[in-house]
Design brief:
7-stranded parallel sheet, disordered N terminus
Length: 445
């Protein structure tokens, strides 16, 4: 955890000290405002009052992340298993991915895998530096080059001192695919335990650590299968890996996809948009982190964005999540991104206790933690009300929030208080108890 983790870790590491300053019960995110005076999700109350005696159906949740500790005592019983495949170098099920028993790693090749990577702005800047560094303006450039020039200028404006040296392209060395060809998709390997798999392990536990086994902590969903898909290195993820990760999840039966990652530039954004549209067409719900820069992502986009490239239309199968704390006084995490057009809901993301590699547990903070809280609630709804579509579940989660009717502190504003509706479209914190009540009413169970 002392390594340089890049932008993915901006969803996590800079805010561990905040979690330590705000001690709460290990399961605070499962508690309720009604019973406990804590702005949790009401999961404990829901199991006690709404789900007792009911039988859920298994739901597959894909965790697009840095990997998962597949040997963890609190996770291994709830891992997705491709029953048509076998470990090894044979593609028994014929899906093109050899030995994908527990999921797939798009950050590798036959003999190794990517752990470290650069930021996207660093990659773009140095890739096109020789082409554009002497260009004074875009006049005279062809249309395609003008568009690329603008992306290059944006990357240059985002460079930091750490980005000032040309990066090593570890992906090119290990993966060796035709990067701009989305049809070249059968690369990688089946190893899900490459660094930084601590992050994905923590995310997975929030969603679906085994409940009631007297080990560590309880996940939110009790009938879940966690599919591991490794697309996030120590550094910025590549658009193609994300796009293919989404497609792999959809093609292999995932009903919900958790995406606790993000970056400031997306040069191959269309690849990702096409994959989101594919998931949309197949009825798969995506839960997406808003990011941890404490900025308005309506103005400063965080990718993947919930908006189409052209026009102002939002995807109907994506929920974008900001991070909240346990009390009214510190309700909005000071690191969380926000935006009344882009961010849909807030969810507990400060000091959330969950699984770490080697059978360990710890409270961590970030929109990376808030996102699986929402994915877990979505899985809970889907498991008890399987007839509900992705669009319906999105509607239920957004309409059932705990509405915040008092001013909250806007991140990085030196204490300025604003209405919650200025920070997200719903003006509230996700509420599993309310959501399950609404789901029952909509399905007449």
């Amino acid at each position: 955890m002392k390594k340089t983790i890049g932008l993915m870790a901006c969803l996590l590491l800079p805010f561990l000290s905040f979690a330590q300053q705000q001690p709460q019960a290990q399961d605070w995110h499962l508690k309720s405002i009604a019973e406990d005076k804590i702005y949790g999700t009401g999961v404990i109350k829901a199991y006690a009052e709404l789900l007792k005696g009911k039988t859920p159906k298994k739901v597959v949740v894909a965790v697009l992340d840095g990997g998962i500790d597949t040997l963890h005592e609190d996770l291994k019983a709830n891992l997705w298993r491709n029953v048509k495949e076998q470990p090894g170098e044979l593609d028994v099920d014929g899906n093109g991915y050899k030995g994908d028993v527990l999921g797939w790693n798009f950050l590798g090749g036959a003999t190794g895998q990517v752990t470290a990577e650069a930021t996207e702005q660093q990659r773009i800047y140095f890739k096109y530096k020789s082409l554009f560094e002497k260009v004074q303006n875009e006049h005279g450039l062809k249309k395609k080059d003008r568009q690329l020039y603008q992306i290059w200028l944006k990357s240059k404006s985002l460079l930091t001192k750490k980005d000032s040296i040309a990066p090593v392209n570890y992906r090119a060395l290990q993966v060796k695919d035709d990067y701009l060809n989305i049809k070249d998709r059968f690369y990688g390997n089946s190893n899900l335990m490459g660094d930084p798999y601590f992050h994905g392990t923590h995310v997975a536990g929030i969603i679906g650590a085994v409940r009631g086994n007297d080990k560590g902590m309880d996940g939110i969903a009790d009938a879940v299968e966690l599919m591991g898909i490794r697309v996030v290195p120590n550094g910025d993820e590549y658009d193609k890996d994300v796009a293919l990760g989404i497609r792999y999840a959809v093609d292999n039966g995932a009903q919900i996809i958790n995406m606790s990652f993000g970056k400031k530039l997306s040069p191959e954004r269309k690849m990702v948009e096409d994959a989101i549209k594919y998931a949309e067409k197949k009825g798969v719900l995506l839960i997406n982190a808003a990011g941890n820069d404490g900025v308005d992502v309506d103005s400063l986009p965080h990718y993947p964005t919930p908006f189409y490239i052209k026009g102002n239309k939002k995807f109907s199968n994506m929920i974008t999540v900001g991070a909240s704390g346990a009390t009214a006084a510190a309700l909005i995490a000071p690191f969380s991104n926000y935006g009344d057009q882009t961010v849909d809901v807030f969810a507990p993301g400060v000091g959330v206790y969950s699984t770490l590699p080697d059978n360990k547990y710890k409270a961590l903070s970030g929109t990376s933690m808030a996102t699986p809280v929402v994915a877990g609630i979505a899985a809970l709804i889907k498991s008890y009300y399987p007839e509900l579509s992705a669009k319906r579940i999105k509607f239920i989660i957004e309409q059932s929030v705990t509405k915040i009717d008092f001013p909250v502190i806007r991140p990085k504003s030196k204490g300025q208080k604003v209405a919650m509706t200025e920070l997200c479209t719903t003006g509230g914190i996700v509420n599993a108890y309310n959501a399950l009540q609404m789901a029952a009413g909509m399905t007449k169970h």
